[in-house]
Design a protein that fits this description.
The complex is a heterodimer. By secondary structure, chain A is α+β, with helices and mostly antiparallel strands. Helix content of chain A is about 25%, strand content about 20%. Among the domains of chain A are: about 90 residues, no CATH class; about 120 residues, 2-Layer Sandwich (Alpha-Beta Plaits), CATH 3.30.70. In chain A, strands 3, 4, 5, 6, 7, 8 and 10 form a seven-stranded antiparallel β-sheet that branches. In chain A, strands 2-9 form a two-stranded antiparallel sheet. In chain A, strand 6 and strand 7 form a beta hairpin. The radius of gyration of chain A is 29 Å and the shape is elongated. The two termini of chain A are about 50 Å apart. Chain B is an all-alpha fold. Chain B is about 60% helix and about 0% strand. Chain B contains 20 helices and one strand. Classes of the chains: A alpha+beta, B mainly alpha. At the A-B interface, helix 1, strand 1, helix 7 and helix 9 of A face helix 2, strand 1, helix 17 and helix 20 of B. Strand 1 of chain A pairs parallel with strand 1 of chain B.
Chain lengths: ~325, ~500
């Protein structure tokens, strides 16, 4: 059981550390030795409330020249005795001044998504009661990642035919589009060059598929078919609607969706700022590395078991 | 030595009553009655003096509580807003004196103008506009915040007495008086100094601890009689907690009595400062006992982290809930009186009573010894005891500002499973020290030094208990929580 470092229940963390912290807070207010030896770097200093960007934004404002500072003096007679005051977030931070008030692990804070292991199953989107999750995905052929691409190319041949996966077939007018369509002159996106189908059953070189456009089920030969995959086009979160219930995290079957315990970086000056795109929901690699590794290992195990089962089946048939 | 300084209150009172009786009843034919009459009136006067001294001494903790807690918890202190008369609240300065009739406000305006100019909200830095200072920040020498105690008293005294309709009326009225009277009786046996005490029976320690243990009964009565679920829970918790902590407390006190060879509080104090007896403070001889006494006393006076009976967040002040007005005020006062008694007892039992730290050694110093000698002649020894008690109360506040309230089962488990065995061990150590080491004279210096070093080393070892897993966790920028899914259809991870 991994505890938060400051919540590990031992004598040091339960008794000695909090008592030292409060003692330091008290000693900090003593005139000479307090600021020198017990200061955390924030106390007794006037915060520069306006940064350059804000000054540019508000322009030539009269109040721009005035420093608004909380009165840190206890006494007008002994001015050097400083007084603890309310902290000035975001110029001062609560974790720095009152470290015992750490944010607990299970606090539902900013949303974090491990996009590497997300499969675009949209369980989170369906679970969200406030409709604040938006995810668009499409089935497409990854032209950089084809099975017949050379090994030293970007393609690692990861896309293969699999039950539940997708395949694509070139359209009749594939060549015509390829020859006539020009990005330089076109005002709209290229017309669809492929027909896509969901693979229902896979046996040898034939597969029974359901075509996406027509909805017909058909048995086709895999020769000439191209594997396709479902990719996330955009995953955005309207944080202005979010109530941080965490149902999305609970619904995720791949442990890819998290509520981090961060309370920062969720504000903005307009409503559009509250639309968090994939870059803002991405959790840091150091944090999600373990989760990604675990999820990938799980999938590798599943894949291995599947292959063993297939091999056993094949040997039994033989 | 400490016992005879000029601050001989008992002697002075006895002399005054004796002279008074000589000059009045001694002149009459009832002169034979003057002996017991003077003794009686001297004791009566001493009881009154101790009462007044106690009430003045308890103002110290009450004042320290709100001043220190603000510093330690890094918040604004609760202080009096007299200054808001001329600075206003926040940035709004209301010139209220202008509304007064008949021009009474004109001189008030002058005064406020003077005060605004001198003690207003302006900073010496012309670029800084101070955010309004809403707390009193001026007359530090007048102990700001102290007057609030008298204001509180006035408020409590004039509030209406409203017992709950369905309360057990007799018990409800009797309970606070049980608590308050026993609390005051405790101070009858606590000496404030070598000659500043109300009563000194031979077994004052036994009397004192017995009376100290009656108040929980009153608390239980109060909780039961108020006919309220919160007070009942509070009373029950109080009964459970105080029973659990009374026993280690008494065993520890027994250890002190064994070490000092007496059941008299004054003799226990003198054992620590008398050159011909022990002359080593008990805290150096039994640091474990000092820790046990401090912890159990914090629990006995129901202060954080053991303030479970009056847990204001969950129990709405617990067993106090239905009390208001002067009864609540007196209960509040008795709580601080009990805390003060605990501090005084800790100072008497462990911190050498009314002796200044290393008093004899300081006097014996070659050059500055004379200065110290003069200091100890001028300052009455009762002052040192009071300062020690306030210092210990400062520790109480420090603990309150730092530690969380402990859960019910944890409190009881801590009391029964850890404190009780430790106190028995401490009793055994005390017996061994008394029978095996003590030879009737001063302690050999190696004994307290060795015990103190061992205690400090044990403490440091306990503090340096590292959690490697938690340290590894600490290196992450922030934490991503993992949940155990309980929803239907959730994947069950069999590996975990």
């Amino acid at each position: 059981m991994a505890y938060h470092p400051r919540a590990t229940p031992n004598f040091r963390n339960l008794v000695v550390r909090p008592m030292w912290i409060t003692l330091r807070a008290g000693l900090r207010t003593i005139p000479v030795i307090g600021p020198r030896f017990f200061s955390s770097g924030y106390h007794g200093k006037q915060a520069q409330m306006l940064d350059d960007e804000t000054i540019n934004r508000i322009g030539d404002n009269d109040s721009g020249d005035i420093i608004y500072a909380a009165d840190r003096e206890t006494s007008h007679f002994v001015k050097s005795i400083s007084r603890p005051v309310t902290i000035m977030y975001p110029y001062e931070r609560l974790e720095d001044l009152e470290p015992w008030l750490f944010v607990p692990n299970n606090y539902n804070g900013r949303i974090g998504v491990v996009w590497e292991t997300c499969t675009a199953c949209k369980a989170c989107v369906r679970a969200c009661p406030n409709d604040c999750l938006h995810m668009e995905s499409e089935v497409r052929v990854n032209v950089l990642d084809m099975p017949d691409a050379p090994e030293d190319d970007a393609g690692l041949s990861s896309v293969e035919f699999a039950e539940g996966g997708y395949l694509a077939r070139k359209n009749d007018d594939f060549e015509e589009i390829e020859n006539t369509f020009s990005l330089e002159t076109a005002h709209e996106s290229a017309p669809q060059q492929y027909d896509f189908a969901e693979i229902i059953d896979l046996s040898g070189t034939t597969a029974s598929v359901r075509w996406t456009d027509s909805g017909k089920t058909e048995s086709v030969d895999l020769e000439g078919m191209i594997p396709a995959e479902q990719d996330i086009v955009s995953g955005r979160i309207d944080l202005g609607r979010c109530m941080f219930c965490g149902l999305c995290m609970e619904s995720c079957p791949f442990n890819s969706f998290f509520m981090t315990n961060e309370y920062d970086g969720m504000s903005g000056l307009t409503r559009d700022d509250l639309w968090m795109d994939a870059a803002r929901t991405r959790v840091l690699p150091v944090v999600h590395k373990e989760a990604v590794d675990r999820e990938l290992a799980k999938r590798a195990d599943k894949e291995r078991a599947k292959r063993e089962r297939a091999a056993k089946k094949a040997s039994k048939e033989a | 030595m400490a016992a005879d300084d000029w601050f001989d209150v008992r002697g002075a009172v006895a002399w005054v009553t004796e002279q008074t009786m000589d000059k009045t009843i001694g002149m009459t034919r009832f002169w034979e009655q003057k002996y017991w009459l003077s003794e009686f009136s001297a004791e009566f006067a001493m009881a009154g003096i101790i009462f007044v001294v106690t009430m003045l001494a308890v103002l110290g903790p009450v004042w320290m509580e709100r001043k220190l807690i603000a510093r330690l918890m890094d918040h604004r202190g609760s202080t009096i807003a007299i200054r808001s008369l001329w600075t206003g609240e926040g940035n709004i300065r209301v010139e209220w004196w202008k509304d007064l009739p008949f021009g009474i406000g004109v001189p008030i305006g002058w005064i406020n103008g003077f005060l605004w100019n001198n003690f207003g909200n302006e900073s010496s830095n012309p670029k800084v506009t101070q955010v309004g200072n809403r707390s009193y920040a001026g007359w530090w020498w007048a102990l700001p915040g102290m007057i609030n105690n008298f204001a509180d008293f006035t408020k409590f005294a004039i509030k209406e007495h409203m017992p709950p309709r369905d309360a057990d009326q007799v018990t409800y009225e009797v309970a606070p008086f049980i608590i308050i009277s026993t609390t005051l009786l405790v101070f009858a046996f606590i000496p404030y100094g070598p000659s500043l005490y109300a009563a000194n029976p031979d077994l004052s320690l036994v009397y004192m601890m017995a009376i100290f243990g009656i108040a929980p009964l009153g608390v239980f009565f109060a909780g039961w009689a108020s006919n309220n679920k919160y007070t009942l829970i509070g009373g029950m918790r109080s009964a459970a907690q105080l029973t659990a902590y009374e026993i280690p407390l008494l065993v520890t006190v027994l250890g002190i009595a064994v070490l000092s060879g007496t059941l008299n509080i004054i003799e226990i104090a003198e054992f620590q400062m008398n050159n011909t007896l022990g002359s080593v403070w008990n805290i150096f001889l039994m640091p474990l006992g000092a820790a046990l006494f401090l912890i159990t006393m914090i629990a006995e006076v129901e202060r954080t982290p053991f303030d479970m009976p009056e847990a204001e967040a969950e129990l709405v002040e617990g067993w106090w809930t239905e009390y208001g007005g002067m009864r609540w005020g007196l209960l509040f006062a008795s709580e601080y009186l009990r805390a003060l008694a605990a501090c005084l007892l800790f100072s008497l039992f462990f911190l050498g009573g009314w002796e200044f730290p290393f008093e004899d050694s300081l006097i014996a110093l070659p050059l500055v010894g004379g200065i110290f000698g003069a200091l100890f002649q001028v300052v009455p020894h009762s002052a040192w005891l009071l300062m020690k008690a306030w210092l210990v109360f400062g520790f109480f506040i420090w603990v309150r500002a730092s530690l969380h309230r402990v859960r019910t089962d944890q409190i009881l488990e801590f009391g029964w499973r850890y404190l009780l065995p430790l106190s028995v061990i401490q009793l055994g150590l005390s017996i061994w020290l008394r029978l095996g080491v003590y030879d009737g004279g001063p302690w050999p210096l190696v004994v307290p030094a060795l015990i103190t070093v061992v205690a400090v080393v044990l403490f440091v070892v306990l503090v340096l208990d590292e959690d490697e897993e938690a340290l590894a966790e600490q290196r992450r920028p922030y934490h991503v929580s993992e949940i155990n899914k309980a929803s239907p259809g959730a994947r069950i991870n069999l590996e975990d």
